[in-house]
Amino acid sequence: MTFATLTRNVFDIKDLNLWYGEHHALKNINFPIIKKEVTAMIGPSGCGKSTFVKTLNLMINYVSNVKMTGEINFNGHNILNEKLDLVELRKKVGMVFQKGNPFPQSIYDNVAYGPRIHGIKKKKHLDEIVTKSLMNVALWDEVKDRLHAPALGLSGGQQQRLCIARALATKPEVLLMDEPTSALDPISTLKIEELILELKEKYTIVIVTHNMQQASRVSDKTAFFLMGELIELDETSKIFSNPRDERTEGYITGRFG
Ligand SMILES: Nc1ncnc2c1ncn2[C@@H]1O[C@H](COP(=O)(O)OP(=O)(O)O)[C@@H](O)[C@H]1O
Ligand SMILES: [Mg+2]
């Protein structure tokens, strides 16, 4: 393997197992995540997609009674073994949830939240970050005249873009998105999808989706999970045209799930 191919993996997950108490929720997952690609995760409810995504920035540590074995290598460091600064990890691996969850603060303060935690205090610097982050998610024009209005006054689609801006404000390398459009109308959904295609120029994106069209529109790779197992991971075009495993085919053609 050449150096170039080695460094293309932002994450390299090896033999990852996870238990919630007795429940074996992730089974021997081997999963490389490639830099500046969009990786989509699909599979029926309860198959472990959210669990997997939450392991990547160790948000899973907030859940009690979880046991993990294996390796989650992030830029060559096994985050399951090495003592590391979790605030720093979550700065590099940002997360956006299913429902936009702005803080009950102003639009500006939502975006400035992360940078402030990381010690940025100068107004000019914060202004720059807020402007740039809102521009990055194509929200700037819609909110520039009301930056100090409550974020909760925005529409659902705007709130979700705001949450993406908030995640981008700390300059992450990876953006995790767990069903980011499942609560949105079709137009807001399309905006987020367009945004994902733009963001992948700069970021590595992992997106959980129940929408097959969405996976095929936005992702380079698609991973199919079933009952805690990664059944198949391949080029998105391959998964949707000619999957190797008949369980993948069954799922994408709607025979179960
Ligand atoms: N905090 C938790 N405690 C115990 N079991 C959980 C917890 N979160 C998820 N699970 C279980 O783990 C499995 C995978 O859940 P999840 O990762 O949320 O699946 P998905 O996102 O694919 O719907 C499910 O059986 C679910 O009930
Ligand atoms: Mg889920």
Question: Which helices and strands occur, and which strands form pairs?
Answer:
Blueprint: H1 3-7, E1 9-20, E2 23-34, E3 38-42, H2 49-56, E4 66-74, E5 77-78, H3 86-92, E6 93-96, H4 107-117, H5 123-136, H6 140-143, H7 156-168, E7 174-178, H8 186-199, E8 204-208, H9 212-218, E9 221-226, E10 229-235, H10 236-241, H11 246-252
Parallel strand pairs: 3-8, 3-9, 6-7, 7-8
Antiparallel strand pairs: 1-2, 1-4, 4-5, 9-10
Bound molecules: adenosine-5'-diphosphate and magnesium ion.
Magnesium ion binds at residues 49-50, 178.
How does this model look, in words?
This protein has 257 residues and is α/β, with parallel strands linked by helices. It has a single domain (3-252), classed as Rossmann fold. Helix content is 37%, strand content 26%. The chain is built from 11 helices and 10 strands. The protein has helices spanning 3-7, 49-56, 86-92, 107-117, 123-136, 140-143, 156-168, 186-199, 212-218, 236-241, 246-252; strands at residues 9-20, 23-34, 38-42, 66-74, 77-78, 93-96, 174-178, 204-208, 221-226, 229-235. The protein has a 6-stranded mixed β-sheet, with helices on both faces. It has a 4-stranded antiparallel β-sheet with strand order 2-1-4-5. Strand 4 (66-74) and strand 5 form a beta hairpin. Helix 4 (107-117) packs parallel to helix 7. The model has no long low-confidence stretch (mean pLDDT 93). Adenosine-5'-diphosphate (ADP) is lined by residues 20, 23, 25, 43, 45-51, 63. It is a peripheral membrane protein. Part of the ABC transporter complex PstSACB involved in phosphate import. Responsible for energy coupling to the transport system. It comes from Neobacillus citreus. Residues 11-252 form the ABC transporter domain.
